[in-house]
Amino acid sequence: MSDATALDHGPEAQFGDYVALLKPRVMSLVVFTALVGLLVAPVGVHPMVAFASILFIALGGGASGALNMWYDADIDRVMRRTQGRPVPTGKIAAGDALGLGLALSGISVVMLGLASNLFAAGLLAFTIFFYAVVYTIWLKRSTPQNIVIGGAAGAFPPMIGWAVATGGVGIESVLMFALIFMWTPPHFWALALFMKDDYSNAGVPMLTVTHGRRVTRSHILAYTLALAPVALALGFTPIGGPVYLAVAAVLNAGFIRGAWRIRARSEDAALADGYAAEKAFFRFSLAYLFLHFGALLAQAALRPYGIGGW
């Protein structure tokens, strides 16, 4: 990260630049999955406690995003997908991003501990550390397994939400974690396939760079096949039921079909149609995760009326 802290100030930062620094798209996933983890837990939580807890979990997610943008400013300037971020454009100084990330980290962890319990706060602190240090600083630039292991950071939020309600961990929260953990590699590898040379130019050892596109396509299919049983297993836990199982069965059949299609394509065919299948799979992967957690939420909402559930 030779020049990440030496970026010159560009145009004066606007409020939207600071919002962008917190990676709002990633934060939306953090908030939603954490909220589902909290709401489907077997222990009820006072609405004010739930609201405060989700707010501080969101702040923790934003803190992780700011720390990531601070450290990755040098490679963000090289990659087309990230060149417009506030630090590489000079709208926000790298040091300011670091300061904001550290401040929000401390505030979010302390306040979550006060609002809910120390176990949930400790899990949030570990999540921020894992994303900022283990993934961003260590794994991302050192191994093609970066997104495989690093995907754990994005998988913790439903466990944190569950911990807010229960003060601990259950098989249900572990399976919610596993669902996101197994989903992350095919989701990001599909992105890497149609981002072409971005990762190579930035010196990031993504699987497409170190092992080639054919191997990456095979890995997408393998992880998708391994993901399906994890997703379906959630349906047989106390938070699952026939509504969730029906949704999961349809989604996983579609996901496997998309992964198989990607595996069967040649690079020439992908280039010819502008990576249409890869882009479609990536977009579907976003809906895939939100719909699984939405189905868990729907199953929980129907349970008091005797509809579904075990």
- Derived from helix and strand composition plus strand pairing, the structural class reads mainly alpha
Average pLDDT taken over every residue: 92
Instruction: Profile the largest sheet.
Output: none
Rg for CA atoms: 20 Å
Form type: flat
What is the CATH fold-level name of the largest domain?
Tetracycline Repressor, domain 2
The residue ranges in which pLDDT falls below 50 over 5 or more consecutive positions are: 1-9
Task: Please name the CATH architecture of the largest domain.
Answer: Orthogonal Bundle
Relevant CATH superfamily of the largest domain: UbiA prenyltransferase
Number of helices: 16
Structure description:
There is one protein chain. The chain is mostly helical. It folds into two domains: 1-169, Orthogonal Bundle (Tetracycline Repressor, domain 2); 181-310, no CATH class. It has helices at 15-21, 24-39, 47-71, 73-76, 94-115, 118-139, 146-150, 152-155, 157-166, 171-194, 198-202, 207-210, 213-233, 242-264, 267-272, 276-302. Helix 2 runs antiparallel to helix 3 (47-71), helix 5 (94-115) runs antiparallel to helix 6 and helix 9 (157-166) runs antiparallel to helix 10. The longest helix is centred in the last third of the chain and has 27 residues, at 276-302. It is flat, with a radius of gyration of 20 Å.
Summarize this structure briefly.
With 310 residues, this protein is mainly α. The protein has 16 helices and no strands. The chain folds into two domains: 169 residues, Tetracycline Repressor, domain 2 (Orthogonal Bundle), CATH 1.10.357.140; 130 residues, no CATH class.
